[in-house]
Design goal:
It is a single chain. With about 450 residues, the protein is an alpha+beta fold. About 30% of the residues lie in helices and about 30% in strands. The strands form seven sheets. The protein has a seven-stranded mixed β-sheet, with helices on both faces. Strands 21-20-22-23-24 form a five-stranded mixed β-sheet, with helices on both faces. Strands 1-18-19 form a three-stranded antiparallel β-sheet. Helix 2 packs across helix 10. The protein binds adenosine-5'-triphosphate. The site of adenosine-5'-triphosphate (ATP) has 16 residues, from strand 11, strand 14, strand 17 and helix 10.
Amino acid sequence: MITKTIEDLSTLVSLSKRRGFVFQSSEVYGGLGSCWDYGPLGSLMKANVKRAWWKAMTRRADIVGIDAAILMHPTVWKASGHVDGFSDPLVDCKDCKTRFRSDNTESYLKHQKCPNCGSKNLSEPRQFNLMFKTTMGPVEDSSNVIYLRPETAQGIFVNFVNCQQSSRYKVPFGIAQIGKSFRNEITPGNFIFRTREFEQMEMQYFVKPGTDAQFFEEWKETRWNFYLKYGIKKENLQFHPHGPTELAHYAKAAVDVQYKFPMGFSELEGIHNRGDFDLTQHSKFSGKSLEYFDEANKEKYIPYVIETAVGCDRLFLAFMCDAYREEVTTSEKGEDTRLVLGLHPQIAPIKVAILPLSKKDELTSVAEKLRNELAEDFDVIYDESASIGKRYRRQDEIGTPFCVTVDFDTLNDQAVTVRHRDKMTQERIGCTQLSSYISEQLKRF
Ligand code: ATP
């Protein structure tokens, strides 16, 4: 058997559409640039991705969660540096009207040429702010301008004191959040890798100055292990430390966790040592003290922040890429390809498929009853059409770890056949034990 991995993102784009993971937003109107909708399976899987991250963060004794509003006081974005600094340099081609980024477009950097038509008739680079603006209240007026947040982090910084005091946590401790962010990206693309509306999973860990370097290293290791735990292949991950020219204005140190997407190693998560930049800025702009009082040592200080920030959509894509495989076998009958999404069972959208061997009432009634019982505990699917082999394949390509076949023997022995996705082994399990059997299997991962 030969196993092929993913070579091109277009393979996933079509699988996603065909099986209901991800659709282009507003497709009936021709789509909206770089916006995507998660379908029946995609929305289940995305919830699993978020659950895995949320669990890894908020089940720790030193991390609390929040869910802050997308719309924030406009001064937040002045204090954070986004109003002045969150921009990309843009150049317009005066001939073909293409607009492109001047800082990472090869033909421009090398030859000062338009990447589309090759013209040298170009505008000077202009800074383009990436924040989406809107107005608040009934009157559209420049004094009512507010922004859709371009990152979730600021909702955490401005709630640092609220969270610390209400939960009575002592430094070091962290605040975690999952939520939508919006960036008017100039170069979106690569499917859901870079989009204009996306979801972030960010955690800010507040530490005593001087201990930051040690916590930075700890978080690097913790986050690395998270990816391995959920089955991402080690050879597809790497750290990319930021050199002095790559560091953001707020960062003392930064490293990206990169994943080997089909277009090459690219950022999946950023881990940053932000120092006391954010709390100091918000203190300055709001006039409120955001210091922490360490009771034990009778010391007051502004904590430093170690941040871990990963895009939910980008992680979803990494899981899909990593899981995709085509198993090709050749026999005298010819070549056969089994397409499998080898997703970690906790990430897979559907845990169990219930498949009655025939459409006869005596089998479907048992199968439907079993489906409803299992649905109390798991996301399940019921499928009674086509041959059993075809139905197994349908489940393999969406990553369902267990297929349960109800056959005529079931009527006598009250047992079903459980078929495992990866090894394709089969076991006979009593109907009444099925739910606990699946739970046990899922816990093993
Ligand atoms: P990139 O340069 O790759 O767009 P970034 O360095 O601007 O990312 P951060 O501001 O550090 O990203 O955001 C943290 C994480 O949020 C990124 O590692 C990525 O997973 C995710 N992210 C950022 N921008 C987008 C986007 N436009 N679409 C999808 N995910 C994003």
